[in-house]
Amino acid sequence: MAQPDPIFAFLNAVATWMAAEASPPLVYAATPRTLWIGMADETYVPKDSSNRPQPYAVIQAYGGSVQQIGLETTSIQIKCVGYGDNATLNLAQSLYQVLLDGNGRPARNVLFGTAPQWRVLGFLNIRPPGIVSRDEKGRPEVRINFDAQFMNNGFFA
User: Fold this and answer.
1) If you write DSSP's letter for every residue of 39-81 in order, what string do you get?
2) In CATH, which of 3.40.640.10, 3.40.50.80, 3.40.50.2300, 3.30.2000.30 is domain 6-153?
3) Could you give the C-alpha distances from 67 to 7, 76, 89, 147, in angstroms and in order?
4) What are all long-range contacts of 141-144, with beta carbons under 8 Å and residues at least 24 apart?
5) Is the pLDDT confidence value at 152 over 90?
6) pTM surpassing 0.85?
7) What is the CA radius of gyration of the chain?
8) 98-146, pLDDT tens digit by residue?
9) Confidence (pLDDT) at 157
10) Is the distance from CB of 28 to CB of 19 less than 8 angstroms?
């Protein structure tokens, strides 16, 4: 039997954790949802009063930077898209804050998930959110990039 992709499993656990920790909390495990892995389906994004998709976020590994020697480290990007610069930046800022501890420094030794349980030893190289482009609809694309150094308990057991 093929083993599940450990990076997808890790991203799923990260997304679940971030959705719960964000202020206000985001919807990840149900539809309509505001947080996605890999690619969003705007059909299932909550709508505003004008029936346009509200700001949403997509989390994905990027750059092929998974390190297999020593502790696993992967680069992660969160892309937030939405109508209105402020609303989209606010969503990104709420996700960015989850990556920081109470002193505003990158969080360390974060434990989350079940079967497997993941431990992030540190969030590294966190770049704060900023508008980097606009999509084909003129909406801002706000991105947060960071590396996560992690380990799991019993993923391949």
Assistant:
1) ---GGGSPB-TTSPBPPEEEEEE-TT----SSSEEEEEEEEEE
2) 3.30.2000.30
3) 11, 13, 31, 11
4) 141/79, 141/80, 141/81, 142/79, 142/80, 142/81, 142/88, 142/89, 142/91, 142/92, 143/77, 143/78, 143/79, 143/80, 143/92, 144/77, 144/78, 144/80, 144/92, 144/95, 144/96, 144/99
5) no
6) yes
7) 16
8) 999 999 999 999 988 776 688 899 999 999 999 999 999 999 999 999 9
9) 38
10) yes
| pLDDT for 64 | 54
**How are the residues of the chain apportioned to helix, strand and coil, as percentages rounded to the nearest 5?**
20, 40, 40
Tell me the angle at which helices 85-98 and 6-21 cross, rounded to the nearest 10 degrees. Answer: 110
At 63, give phi and psi (nearest 5°): 80, 0
pLDDT tens column, 40-78: 999 999 999 999 999 999 999 987 555 566 678 889 999
35 within 8 A of 59, measured Cβ to Cβ: yes
How high is the pLDDT of residue 151? Answer: 85
